[in-house]
Amino acid sequence: MHYFRKILRYALPYKRYAWLNIIANIFYAFFGSLAFVSLIPMLKVLFDDSEVVAEMPEYTGIANIGDYTESYLNYYISNNIATSGEMNTLVIMIALVISTFLLKNLFGYLAMFFITFLRNGVLKDLRNDLYRKTVELPVSFYSEKRKGDTIARISSDVLEIQHSFLSILELIVREPLMILFTIIFMLIISVKLTIFVFIFIPVSGFIISRIGKSLKRHSDNVQREQGFFLSILEETLGGLKIIKGFNAENIFNRKFRESTDRFFKYSNTLLNRQNLASPASEFLGILVIAILLWFGGSMVLVEQSLEPAQFIAYMGLAYNILTPAKAISKASYNVKKGNAAAERVLEILETESTIKDKPNAEEKSDFNESITINDVSFKYEDEWVLKDFSLKVPKGSTVALVGQSGSGKSTIANLVTRFYDVNKGTISIDGVNITDMSQKSLRGLLGLVTQDSILFNDSVKGNLLIARESATDEELIDALKVANAWEFVSLLPKGMDTNIGDGGNKLSGGQKQRLSIARAVLKNPPIMILDEATSALDTESERLVQVALENMMKNRTSIVIAHRLSTIQNADQIVVLSKGKIVEQGRHSELLALKGVYSSLVEMQSLA
Q: d(Cα 586, Cα 574) in Å, to the nearest integer?
């Protein structure tokens, strides 16, 4: 119930629907119990079993409510039969039964009608918060998490919460009230028989509760495994070319099959335990009814302390308790299932972001002097990727970072954009530490073009507007022209409104990269970070992209992480890294003259 209380806070904006649901449920429970009591006068008339009472009985207090009700009922029936005849009285009694059942079902529908808005509202808000938190959490959070597991939490786990936790909201008022009103009417009919019934109900409740003890653990296994095979599916769709190219279908089929086999086993265990709840509770309920028939039958036939019509109505009331009791027992199993789902959902919602804005973070809107990286050391896990790294990038200059894979080039881009925070040292812009700036204003100063062209399943226009939502078509076309992309975009079937497919897969590698550059150009930031923007391209595409990059870097400060050294020969400063440290620094011609690491890298690439 700990997680249930946390989820319930999402119901607060919809509390008016909760109150309307409670009011409707009160009437539903009242008329649901009264419906069985209304059978008594009909049965009395039908079996001619009513005692003739000529005078209106006198009410003598709550202690004698049962006797008073019975006397008043007999008086009413006697009076009606005397004035209207038996058949007319029977019709009135039947109309009374129909009316109570009609009102019960009307209020039952209204209760469900109101609770629907609450359930779906909680579902919507929970998903929105989960998505917002997913976007808000730092990149480092997902370096160890499976994407499919996150997808499973937003989709199936939230649905499980709706089916389990939120279904309790329907039962939390209705079923206890139904039981309460039923017990009141049962006590009015016979206190002795009611006390006898309630000796057996706790015994059956204890047996039912024992069945659902391990449901949370089994449900947790099911949901975790579902996240795992969704991850495999997501990775398969993303890497389909590699899987087919390496004939690795059997490997991935086996991994997926092993996961679904485990899911099959966990689901069977969970559902079999859950399915045991209904027949077990029904059998125990019928057992209570059978004992009731024996004990109540002796009161009618032997003691004659209970009338047959009352006993039949009492049996209906006793059975009326079984339905809400079964619903409550089933809900308790659902709580255990929902507990596992809520735990997984709340794990994301309650995860504190390691990268936060300070309370009075500075909103910096311009760039005037330089970017200064001062004695920065950083590690992703245990091993230092950067060690005492220092670099100054003056405004308007282009600084290129080169070195072998693993030397820490891309890490610098991750730190400047504050996707990760430094372990030691500082990074500042115009003397302001980036940790003292809001993340939004920091990233507002930066444009980013990565090695992998990250595009979305949208039109060309939709992908560009991510940079600046208010941009006009003319501004979009200008950005595309700067990026050497307008020539191919203008030839697309619908121009800028053409959908480019999942990840931009309808375009070539060079076209995708030029669109990424156009997006950065449209943002028009003072600082550009280019993370190996041409390394994945063929020679012709590289030439077109390189021209686009040169166009984009004019009058801007640029940090270029380069794999192909031919693309950074005109840089104002080239920094050569090895194992997280600067080993050489200077212009292209100066570094070649040194005949050191940079010269060796250039020579290796020219030979290649």
A: 5
How far apart are the C-alpha atoms of 308 and 301, rounded to whole Å?
9
Q: What architecture (CATH level 2) is domain 2-215+276-349?
A: Up-down Bundle (1.20)
What is the reported pTM? 0.70
Domain boundaries, the chain: 2-215+276-349, 370-607
Nearest CA to 503 out of 513, 494, 493, 495 is that of: 513
Element at 351 (helix H, strand E): none
Residues 448 and 520 sit within 8 Å (Cβ to Cβ): yes
Query: What pLDDT score was predicted for residue 455?
Result: 84
- Closest residue by Cα to residue 536 from 571, 560, 510: 510
Whether residue 51 is predicted with pLDDT greater than 60 in this model: the reply is no
The closest alpha carbon to 579, from 420, 424, 405, 427, belongs to 405
Query: Across the chain, what does the average pLDDT equal?
Result: 79
Residue 210 has pLDDT above 80, yes or no: no
Sheet with 398-403: strands ordered across:
446-449, 527-531, 557-561, 398-403, 573-578, 581-586
Comparing 214-218, 307-311, 436-440, which segment has the lowest mean pLDDT?
214-218
* Residue 275 pLDDT grade (very low, low, confident, very high; cuts 50, 70, 90): confident
Q: Which of 358, 348, 414, 386 is nearest to 139 (CA)?
A: 414
pLDDT value at 377 more than 70? yes
Which helix or strand (DSSP H or E) is residue 320 part of?
helix 308-349
For residue 216, the surrounding DSSP H or E stretch is: helix 215-238
Helix (H) or strand (E) holding 55: none
Q: At what angle do helices 215-238 and 249-301 cross, to 10 degrees?
A: 150
Look-up of token digits 């998505």: 131
Q: Which amino acid is at 43?
A: L
> What pLDDT is stored for residue 225 in this prediction?
79
514 Cβ neighbours under 8 A, 6+ residues apart: 483, 484, 485, 488, 544, 545, 548
Q: What CATH architecture does domain 370-607 belong to?
A: 3-Layer(aba) Sandwich (3.40)
